[in-house]
C-alpha cells in the first residue's frame, strides 16, 4: 500500500504532467472525437491504435491489450519499474522527490542535487561534442583522423554525440566554472577528480574521444573515454587504459546501464533480440551498418542486472565477443546467467581475434548477421569449448572435469525444472553418460551447496530478504496490493511470492510474461458498478468477503479499494490508479472504465440496483456452496444421529431465512 507521502507525491506528479505531452514526445498525436490516437510504439502499428483519453489521463492499446495511466505508460515505454517511472516524471515536472521521501531538501547547485548533476553532465558532454565538431588544433585533427580510420562517419558521430576531451588538465573544470558549477559538482558528476592535496580538481578525461552515456530518457548521465593512440604516445598517457568510464554517481550505475539502449530500444522491442557488444565503437559501427538492436556493457561483464533490463525488451540476448582469449573467458562467465535467467542467451565469438567494428567494416553487415543467426546458446558454446580435444569415453579425467564444471554452474542456479531437464538431456547426449546419473550428481552438488549456505558465520550475504509469512486467504484488508503485484511480476526472484496464488508461486523464472487473469463474470459486473458509482465502493468494502471473488486479480482490486478506504481517500478510478503501481492491474482498471463509458446511458437499471442484485447473487452463490458442503457432510456417514439432526435443522433454517419465511415458534409446533 502506498504511504500517505507516496500517494501525495504520485498525485502531485500526475497533476503536473499531461499524458498527451508524455505520449506525444517524438510522434504524431491525432484527435479522434473527444480522445486522441497515436501509433502504438509497442507493436508494429500501421494505423493509430493507441487511444489517449486526456480527460481521464489514461491510455489503452487494444491490439497489445495494455493500458493505464501516465506512470504505466512510462514503465512500458522505458521497461522500468514504478519507482523509476515516478522519478522520471517527477524530474520532468521539476518536483523534488526527496522532499516527500526523506524530508531532505537539496538546493540547486548542490553536489547531491540530481537536477544539478544532470545539467553539469549535459554541459560537459556538449562542450566535448562542440570541441570535436568545431575545434582547431592538431589534437582535434588526430581525433577526427582516428574516427576516419575506424570508419565512423560524421553522421554517426553526430547521432551518438561523440566528442573530444583535449589533453588538458582543466578543460571541463573551466567550462563548468564559467557556468557557475563548483568543483564539488564536477566531481559528483564524475567528470573531475579531487587532487590528493585537497586543493582543487582536475579533469578525469584527457586526450580521449568521449562517448556520452544516456539514460532511457536520452539524458547524459555519464561518459566514457576511448584513448587515441597518436595522442597518448606523445605524453604520459601511453600506458593508459584503452577505455575508461565515469565513476558511479547519483545518476550512473554501470551494472544497470547499457550504452546505446536509448537508441536501440524500439528496434530491440520489435525484433525481440538484442546484441550486446563490448565497446562504444562496436555499437557505433554496427548501427552505421544498419544493425540497430545493439548495446554495449560499460566497463563490466554482462551481469544479472543487465539481463533483467534486457528481458523487458527482448527474449533473446546475443553476447558478441572478440575472438581473443579474454573474450573466451567472458563467454565462460555467462553460462550461469543462461542457466538461471530464463532468457535465450547466445554467444557469438568472432573469428581470428576480430572485434565487431573491424569485422563489420571488413566483411559487411550481411556477413555479421549470418554469424548472429548461427550463434549457439551459452550452454552449447560451453560444451563445445569443453569438448575440444576431449574424448568423453576415453579421457576420463578431462571428461570428469568438464562435467563437474557444467554441473557446478547448474547447481548454483535454482532455474526451472524443465530448463534443467533439457540441459541434462543435452549434456547426456554430448557425454554419453546416462541422464539419471547426471541428475543424481547434480542433486548431490545442490545438497552440498545448500548445506554450506546454512553454516553459521557465513560470509556471503543472502541474495534477498526472507519473505514475510503468507497472509491468510481471507485477509485482503491486510494485504499490500503493490507488494503482491510486484512479487508476482518480478521474474528475477525465483522464490515463491508470499502473496502469489499457487499457480503463480510455482512458476519458473522462464515465464517472464506472466499476466494477471482478466476480471470477468459477476466480479467484472461488481467493479464496473463501483467505477460507475464510486459512492457504492464504501459499502462494498464492508460487505464483500474477498473469498467471494473468483480470481486473484479481483481480490487484489478489492484490496486496493480497502487500502484507499483505510487511508480516507476517494474511492474513484483516479485514486485507484494512484494507489496501484503495477501496470497490469492498471490496464485492467482502465479496461473496466472504458466498458463503463461505452455503456453510459444505455442501461435502464441504475448502479444502485445493479449493485444490490450483484450482492444478492454473491450471497446466493455462497449459500448454495455452503449447502452443498453440508449435504456432503450428511452423505459422508461420519455424523451420529444427533449431529445429523442438528445439521438438518441448520439447513432448514438457513433455507427459510433465504426465502424470507419466518421460523415457526414453539407454540406453533
From TrEMBL:
GO CC aspect terms: cytoplasm; DNA-directed RNA polymerase complex; primosome complex
Catalytic activity: ssDNA + n NTP = ssDNA/pppN(pN)n-1 hybrid + (n-1) diphosphate
Residue spans, zinc finger CHC2-type: 40-64
GO BP field: DNA replication, synthesis of primer
Positions of region (Disordered): 446-476
Domain Toprim: 272-353
PROSITE patterns with a match to the protein in the record: TOPRIM (PS50880)
InterPro entries linked: DNA_primase_core_N_sf (IPR037068), DNA_primase_DnaG (IPR006295), DNA_primase_Znf_CHC2 (IPR036977), DnaG_bac (IPR030846), DNAG_N (IPR013264), DnaG_primase (IPR050219), TOPRIM_DnaG_bac (IPR034151), TOPRIM_dom (IPR006171)
Domains as described in the record: Contains an N-terminal zinc-binding domain, a central core domain that contains the primase activity, and a C-terminal DnaB-binding domain.
Family: Belongs to the DnaG primase family.
Protein name: DNA primase
Gene (name only): dnaG_1
